[in-house]
Amino acid sequence: MHGLILAGGEGSRLAADGIQDAKVTVTIAGRPQIRGLVEILDQLGCPTITCMVRDAVRAPAVRALDGFDPAVRILSCHTPSSLHTLAEGLAATPPGPVFCTMVDTVMRASDWGATYGSARALLAEGADAVLAVTPFVDDERPLWVERDAVGYVRRLGSEPVSPPCVTGGVYAFGRAARAEVVDAVEAGVTRMRGFLARLVDAGARVATVEVARIVDVDRRRDLELANAWLGDEAS
Q1: Is residue 125 assigned to a domain?
Q2: What is the pTM of this model?
């Protein structure tokens, strides 16, 4: 699966908490976040890695990846939402299945490996898309996931489910789901969660891989939690 990192957001909540670094370069587990993610995707075996980075922070992102394999591409974007960033990123990614992560997603290395392996297998078995989900809910506006007995998504929305299950910012997309992204943008869908719900409502086979904990780094406290959890001091 080709690797895709979405880093088109402004990181305004981190900035409001006094964090001067952008999400792409904030230090987590001793490394700039974008470098850590690129290293993970490379280790997982992604033949290409595309990083969609907001134009204002492209220069520091390039410096963070200095010396890395030239197969890693850093592309500038100035998009209104994560869905638009995804659409531009997929257009720049070679044909085939894609393993996609938001730049602010933090997991343990073993969980990245398990998620990648399971996503590959699920796409090969006929899933159109795969979502990493977690029972760890620490988000102001989580996207809740209702699943069937074998882990396929029945519904996505703002209503809590029991036991808790929310999306974690990591996705795998097959050919049909890649095409649906373009249709969703043309239909006026403006957010990633809107696209995912549209995909489920249209009858796509959306599978899940459960991870015990996924941290979404939006605020200072998330950054501190991620560093403490991965055994490094907060930057």
Answers
A1: yes
A2: 0.94
Total tally of structural domains belonging to the chain: 1
Does a structural domain hold residue 173? yes
Q: Which domain holds residue 223?
A: 2-229
On the CB side of 170, CA atoms within 13 Å amount to 29
Residues 6+ apart with CB under 8 A from 2: 46, 47, 48, 49, 50, 93, 94, 96, 97, 98, 99
pLDDT tens digits for range 178-226 = 999 999 999 999 899 999 999 999 999 999 999 999 999 989 999 999 9
Let me know if residue 235 belongs to a domain: no
Residues of the chain with pLDDT under 70: 10-11, 70, 232-235
Give the integer Cα–Cα distance in Å for 37 and 47.
14
d(CA 144, CA 158): 6
Q: Which two tokens stand for residue 37?
A: 């993610």
CATH number at residue 21: 3.90.550.10
Q: 20 by DSSP, 3-state: which?
A: coil
Residue 234: inside a domain:
no
